[in-house]
Amino acid sequence: MDRRKFLKTSALGGSAAATTALAAPAYAQGKRTLTMVTSWGRGLAGVFDAAQKTADNINAVSDGSLTIDVKAAGELVGAFEVFDAVTSGQADMYHAADYYFVNQHPGFAFFTGVPFGMTAIELNNWYYHGNGIELYDQLGQIFGLKSFLAGNTGTQAGGWYKKEINSPEDFNGLKIRMPGLGGKALGYMGASVQNIPGAEVYQALASGAIDATEWIGPWADEKAGFQEITKTYYAAGFHEPSAGLTLAMNRDVFDSLTPTQQKAVEISAGDANVWNLSQYLMNNGAALERLKAGGVKVLEFPDSVWDGFGAASQKVFDEFMGDELFAEIFNDYMGSMRASSGWISDSITAYRSQRDRVFG
């Protein structure tokens, strides 16, 4: 069966793909204002910064021929409504984490983060020098999108818990916020998984609506204030070894841009991708020390829990392998990760171990 026809009529792709039939409005040449909707609350540390950085870049690199009007979550559409807003033509582009949209197609998760998947360096290797861009484009064409990586949080923390996790069974019945395929894996472990917009997570944890949450990492988590609610923090998580952020444009809008404007969008997203990763990595260390000084216990999941994460993650991958495009992306992604990881382990990892031993 033709892949695009299958996805447009499937439960995953039907509703969103149907919106691509709507004609995009015609634009006059010259200066244009384009609307960017985001999944982020205004000022949300790091993620909103990446959206604003991308917009500012486009404004500058296009020499004023494009002006990006950035809308925070809720200002035009809700945090999880940005995908439909752009595919329908209500907005011109969105900035979000594409694993929010795995119900449209599970392949979107690979361009944010998947359990036991790529680090940020490995993701960039695959995206820029492997087949990542081409596969992202195949996926985007189904929904009328042109997508670019435009931010990365780096390796995300395991999260905040109101009780310590000592065995896989501790997840049974646990109410936890975790999007994407990582959340699906915890569902296999018996957790009650919630997908809550970032700006609403603090209140959900404080009110008891959830028992635990992942967010990003020490800097963004400290800014969100989770340490005011619980002092139990797991620094390493299985679910997002990196988290790519996406700028996705309505494809008709992108195609209507001049070649120079299109290149401005591409370059602007690429700059934001590197800039945002450095922003997180620069701030996380100092934030972690402040959290520790404030009484936060930084813990590591025991090996039995990591084994449980692994078994559940494999079930998630197996669940979707019947989808042709998911399988194609999965196999290419994993092949690239294996190709990158050997040299990284033998060089960077070995070097850092010796550096820490010699210089402490």
Rg (C-alpha, Å): 20 Å
Tally of contiguous helical segments = 13
Order of helices and strands: HHEHEHEHHEEEHEHEHEEHHEHH
Low-confidence runs of at least 5 consecutive residues: 1-28
CATH class value of one domain: Alpha Beta
| Portion in beta strands | 5-15%
The percentage helix is 40-55%
Strand order of the largest sheet: 7-6-8-5-9-11
Overall mean pLDDT: 93
CATH topology annotation of one domain: D-Maltodextrin-Binding Protein, domain 2
User: Which architecture name of one domain does CATH use?
Assistant: 3-Layer(aba) Sandwich
* Shape, principal axes of CA atoms: globular
Distance between the termini: 58 Å
CATH superfamily of one domain: Bacterial extracellular solute-binding protein, family 7
Biggest sheet architecture? 6 strands, mixed
Total beta strands: 11
Structural class: alpha/beta
Structure write-up:
There is one protein chain. The protein has 360 residues and is an alpha/beta fold. The chain has a domain of 190 residues: Bacterial extracellular solute-binding protein, family 7 (D-Maltodextrin-Binding Protein, domain 2). Helix content is 48%, strand content 14%. The chain contains 13 helices and 11 strands. The chain has a 6-stranded mixed sheet with strand order 7-6-8-5-9-11, covered by helices on one side. The chain has a 5-stranded mixed sheet with strand order 2-1-3-10-4. The radius of gyration is 20 Å and the shape is globular. It starts with a helix and ends with a helix. The N terminus is likely disordered.
